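Box S2. Input/output pair 1.
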Amino acid sequence: MTDSIDTTPDIAAARARLLEIIKDKAIVHGKVTLSSGKEADYYVDLRRITLDAEAAPLVGIVMRDLISDLDYDAVGGLTLGADPVATSVLHASAAAGERKDAFVVRKAGKAHGLQQRIEGPSIKGRRVVVVEDTSTTGDSALEAVAAAREDGAEVVAVAAIADRSTGAPENVKAKSGLEYRFVYGLEDLGLA
């Protein structure tokens, strides 16, 4: 008889550790202009964690858990913020014995090669979740939703690591009819 090793990730521990890393490495205080054009007194630079060797696997575990009740085939979103999030979910899913592809939505179609706006395995006729690192208005996610739908995918939800509590859930719901989920809000990040 062999002892089996439990490889199931401890979601609560992963979530807590990821939050520690975000607070330590990704929150920058000072005046900034966000992609939405709004000004803020802080910036949550999640690329500092989605591309971090310790944090990236945690991103996959936590985001995979966030959307675990959804029926989907692939995750992706608008480049650049969504790319490492989608890849982390792909790897966490593979580690759990599931196949979830990742895709990248370009800000504009390529003028050369295959001239595709969406890169990766085809999402035509597949169920997808649009992901992003952090969201202010949800407009980046909505751009990815529109591109995925145009490419023939059925978008089932939008999911982000962090939400700035500035209207993204309502905006996404109103403009796309989709549910918007997030892992951490401003209170979690110590910014409320």
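Box S3. Input/output pair 2.
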Amino acid sequence: MSTQNSFISQLQRAHLADITPYQSARRSMSGGSVWLNANEAPQTPAFPQQNDWNRYPSFQSNALNQAYADYAGVALEQVLSCRGSDEAIELLIRSFCEPREDAVMITTPTYGMYAISAATHGADVVDCPLQKAADGSLQLDVEAMVARVRDTRQTRVKLIFVCSPSNPLGNEVDAKRIEQLLEAVGQDALVVLDQAYIEFVAAESSQRRIAEWLARYPQLVVLRTLSKAFGLAALRCGFALGQPELIEILRKVIAPYPLPEPTIAGATQALSEPAIAEMQAQLAQTLKQRERLLADLTNRSWAKAIWPSVTNFVLVNVPDAAALVTHCQHAGVLIRNQSSQRGLGQCIRISIGNAAEMDRLLEVLPA
């Protein structure tokens, strides 16, 4: 697909249009039986049984990307694999935000790396905090977000980061509000929907049908990961999904060999039908343990407020978050203090482990 005169190419940093991506040995050539074009060692002395570890991995593994495309229901050319969705955040900011000229929008409380990545790149950070909805949940303030995007007197917002399901809240952001945002923003900015926890939401959720969203909204970018439900946090494998022209822009910026071969192999295997079935079975157990924890917390007097969760963690408002975190840590159980987040004073976040880990947690928590 041509990027000439498209709004996505107009949003990218202007100088990227004239940049030719680095043509690594793997990217520029294929085939052959004797590989002497990449300055590689002929073998790996420390691991002689690994007969391919001396070779650079693929720039983008077609096998891995096709496996994820099949899983997500999108086309191969709509997928970029990277070192976790954290790298995708960096790539988007580097591709679309001019330092000291452009901005990213966040909606606190939210995932902290959006702001940190923007700040380290020199992009401004615009915060449109979540607002309390009629049902008590925190949701997008679409009116305020759109007004800021259209405000030409201030730094131009190029990227809008929306985390759904939300980290650290645990709830699913209202799909109607996301769609309202997409429609109102139009071609003025890209909306980046971070779906790290998407596997935990109900199967009937419209946010699962991301291929339909991408077809309707070319300004949408979706971030996914294998770190959560797939249990592959150590492998560092994530994906950016979007229009082919956007993926091509990111391919200019990404490193020559973003994923190591063991990650590619492990991630591809995890996306096989049997492995997906095993992931779904484990996910069901995680949800069972989450409901067990939620039920237990209702009987703990110090649990002042328990936030609804569709994820593999629970957010709880307590009298003294630091004291509770320290109490659990002394007993060998680590939970997280979220009190530094806007609007989450004295809140702790508990991840859902296996049955034995949750047994230990419930033993350690104060009565």
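Caption for Box S3: The first helix runs from residue 7 to 11. The mean pLDDT is 95.
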